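User: I'm curious whether this sequence folds into something compact or stays loose and floppy. Could you predict its structure so I can see for myself?
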Amino acid sequence: MASALPAALNDWFAARGWSPRRHQRDMLAAAETGQHALLVAPTGAGKTLAGFLPVLADLIETQHVGLHTLYVSPLKALAVDVQRNLLTPIDEMDLPIRVETRTGDTPSDRKARQRVRPPHILLTTPESLSLLLSYPDAALLFTNLKTVIVDEVHAFATQKRGDLLALCMARLQTIHPALRRVALSATVADVDAYRAWLAPDGDINTVETVIGEQGADPVIDILIPEGRVPWSGHSGKYAATQVMAEIKKRRTTLVFCNTRGLAELIFQELWSANDDNLPIGIHHGSLSREARRKVENAMAAGKLRALVATASLDLGVDWGDVDCVIQMGAPKGSSRLLQRIGRANHRLDTPSEAIVIPGNRFEYLEARAALDAVEAGERDADDFRPGALDVLAQHIMGVACAGPFQEAAMLEEIRSALPYSALTAEEFARVLSFIEGGGYALKAYDRFKRLVKDPDGQWRVAHPQFIAQHRLNAGIIVDQPVLNVRFANGRTLGTVEEGFAAQLAPRDCFFFSGTALEVVKMDTTDLIVRATSRPARIPSWGGTRMAMSTRLADRVREFLASPDQWHRFPPDVHEWLETQLLRSALPQPGQLLVETFPHEGREYLICYSFEGWNAHQSLGMLLTRRMEAQGLMPVGFVANDYALAINSLKPVTDPRSLFTRDILTDEFVEWVEQSSLLKRAFRDVAVISGLIERQHPGKRKTGRQVTFSTDLIYDVLRKYEPDHMLMDAAWADARARMTDVGRLGDLIDRAADTMLHITLDRVSPLAVPTLILMGREAVGSRATEDALLVEAEALVREAMRTE
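Assistant: Here's the prediction. I'll summarize afterward.
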């Protein structure tokens, strides 16, 4: 198939001593036959070039007018990086092909010009594509569109952003039925599931699967600090000096952290250990656009020796000089680890090098499980679920902004997107009714009457003001209420969440963007700061915590039940498990181990279920309610990915009575409704669906204003229309995203039949990492942390004593 390449491309390959790889030729062949294509290839295999090769070939050979290809990325940084890397061969071949990006960071004048004079290739995100489709000239803009390329499809296909993109592709297919869809990924577990998501009408037979050539196996080490693994913690900050030693040995190192707060913490620890003043940077989603672009450009230019980053950079960004990736804390999934590892030595024939730094002994087991999974080629399972109704409402409103539509035709188009293939006519009518007037309880308010039905049966926008409102507020990512962090001169550093800012007063200090800042004053939208050298605290951010994947959890359980595997672990981890087996028990796969014991005047129940933080947090709330009803006087609980610990004034003698299946019916519903979970979920779906706007022309609502508005409507709907579409959407979010009810249900289902309850006279070795968390969750000072370390040492001595 190399002969199918135009001469300019053949010459470009030859000038570098290259030739197209087999999977790149296969992608060319799929394009020649008009097949949709899913490419699954390891990082460094030239996936992006494989996706664009047919595009470049067609643009070289034809005089294409208008927009030829849409490239959709989950990250703004990835779109910018792909533009940089795509322009290189285009410039070197001196091709008259224009490539531009369109994201939330793109200036408005350029966006307007792109609609009038589009580039040949437009690199964008699902949200920006959705907004493009909301303009009346969308049909004209996309009428000659030939290809949509979805990069890193695994990162968002199963989420709400994937729902939006699937709907957008259905709309594009209606505009141009011959449109070809292409998806790229390095980490897909279920190929057919992604083929169905990609294909119009879910017909996988229209999607060609292209499997890339396998490259060199990655080289992954687990760093053991001074020969011992910590008992508790999750940051790996204890290893800062050793991490800096690794950075000194390399050209460029990416240091990945699982949260923004952890990234700020690790940056400070590394900077304190950076005796040679090596240039290191920090990158996460709460930093300003200017700060992110500055560090991205510095990395691309090879000016940084290390960059501390979150998931904001773990997808596809190609920096060739990165020769090592360091993962701080457990990776939470083999697919995520493999994806991040791939950022190092971004070449197929060169092993990617990585170091994992576990935060505690359970995290060591998780890290070892992830390495084994990577070696075995095992990927984390993806959970495809029905499309979200709040996303559907946003999409329908966007289509209406472009022009009137017929109900039957719209339903048929929507059903061609896999997430909504089972949407019933009744559900669709319900969504239309919601956009038409807000629902029964809100129909008296004109501001919710966004759609009207004409006598000829067409739906259209009720008033032009709703079109402007939609374009200002559309989006799937709903951030927590935030304040801008800025200096008095107006320079903005980024944002912190209102919940954290509310804890601050003038002269308080916190770290942000790698700098110690002192609060000068605070108003409704801004936190005014100045640089300081005083000691500072680490900011906290909300959001769903990454949970250990089910497949990694299964591997950890197998480790615990397989003493013949323990020789692979460090001596202190081996000793920890041996002592646990001597003192208590270790759970067999599928078994639920529950320990109860007294400690320092309290009674403890520890449940080792390995179902992830969200499920354990939900279980802790439910169990403490039951314990209170039984008169056991629970005091509190703490959860991590591996276990749940509850302390009480009275002992639990019959834990089976707590873990009965009916806990997920009335008690779960009552707890969620009484907690803030459902209100938080409702706020998100109200914003996404367009019921509540975040912005007015020239003014953005504060987080408090948005929350106040959504809380008022929530209370009205809960009282007068509890079956409202948004209440159902909020419940779906609360179950899946906030409480992980699926894994929680699996745990409850097996609890009664598999529970092994062991009563002990004191704390067990396996309980120590979880118990140390109690009291540490809200540590605010170094002195408090030091005192807790002393307590932890005493706890360890008690647990490991075998006489």
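Summary: The two ends are 73 Å apart (CA to CA). The longest helix spans residues 782-800.
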